[in-house]
């Protein structure tokens, strides 16, 4: 990046590693230095919680507000009825309105922890694009909006082109998504003076479309800023683990498991993640990330505490750290470990197999995976190695809480 921005927001974005591309960095910088600027990120309601793959965007909204600008959280109540095809191999499952409403309610819970909502000039607002998309007249929309879109250009965007190149079907329904997202930007500019759309780098084409449409329909200059699509140092997708997605809502993933995800960060990622997901000074992030041995492990605990405090509060972070110390340093149980409670009907008189317990606890995704874990000497029952996949655990033992472990880092409790 040759241009060095002078606005506080873009300086933060640049120093902490948030910027992948910007449609007009200098123009956006000047606008940000000319008074509070409203900016938005859209979140489609495809599940009842976001996962940590969305956390980089949420942090961008937080920094936008902390540097004197106005964050707009746009819920995709309308676009979720279509589904974003970007870089997907197949079409998303269509959701009904009741499920979309439940998902929006669940997703909305997390944002109040990161931004302040209200009526002031820099207070965040939350909107739903169903407000304007649900009532569009199809023919009017085609005449007034559709005429500004070139199919040739839409086909050239990488998110669409990659799907076609792989000879994977792209429905007309999905093809309309980028038009609807462009329309969102134009409507937000018209209704709320929004001048910035942010998103992951996979949204570049959709953001550019919105900028063009806003200029053509309203004659206004708006800007786009994308963040890098993060992978971890081992090449795996951010937020995806063997145990599943790392959800942001506590009812989808316990604060302890959330904390443990960050504690298990690879050494090479610590400094980068501290800059992106915490508010520690950049110099301190770099210093912590450069540590080795016991020092880097302490830095990982700091990372886990800082991120968990933002998402779940300081008490949850402290409880998670205490549980981790009890489990890993003292060989104990720890009060915050994820717990599965079985009903009497779940356990036959002869007991339940260790394979079933591993699956029911969530430490294994299937019986086959559980057997492989045992064969690889990775399973433990009350800290004792399990070598027999046919081991049965009787009701008497389950009457007290038993501790299951998958490897050294994943633990769960099971009780009757």
UniProtKB/TrEMBL annotation:
Residues given in the record as L-tyrosine binding sites: 40, 177, 181
Alphabetical list of InterPro entries matching this protein: aa-tRNA-synth_Ic, Rossmann-like_a/b/a_fold, S4_RNA-bd_sf, Tyr-tRNA-ligase, Tyr-tRNA-ligase_bac-type, Tyr-tRNA-ligase_bac_1
Pfam short name (any one): tRNA-synt_1b
GO cellular component, one term: cytosol
EC number from the UniProt entry: 6.1.1.1
Principal subcellular localisation of the protein: cytoplasm
Placement of sequence motif 'KMSKS' region: 237-241
Listed Gene3D superfamilies: HUPs, RNA-binding S4 domain, Tyrosyl-Transfer RNA Synthetase
Protein keywords: Aminoacyl-tRNA synthetase, ATP-binding, Cytoplasm, Ligase, Nucleotide-binding, Protein biosynthesis, RNA-binding
Taxonomy, superkingdom: Bacteria
GO MF entries: ATP binding; protein homodimerization activity; RNA binding; tyrosine-tRNA ligase activity
GO biological process terms held by the UniProt record: tyrosyl-tRNA aminoacylation
Subcellular location: Cytoplasm
Keyword Protein biosynthesis: yes
Reactions catalysed according to its record: tRNA(Tyr) + L-tyrosine + ATP = L-tyrosyl-tRNA(Tyr) + AMP + diphosphate + H(+)
Residue ranges of the motif 'HIGH' region: 45-54
Positions bound to ATP: 240
Record text on subunit structure and interactions: Homodimer.
Job description of the protein: Catalyzes the attachment of tyrosine to tRNA(Tyr) in a two-step reaction: tyrosine is first activated by ATP to form Tyr-AMP and then transferred to the acceptor end of tRNA(Tyr).
Family from the record: Belongs to the class-I aminoacyl-tRNA synthetase family. TyrS type 1 subfamily.
Protein name, UniProt field: Tyrosine--tRNA ligase
Organism per entry: Halovulum marinum
Gene transcribed to yield this protein: tyrS
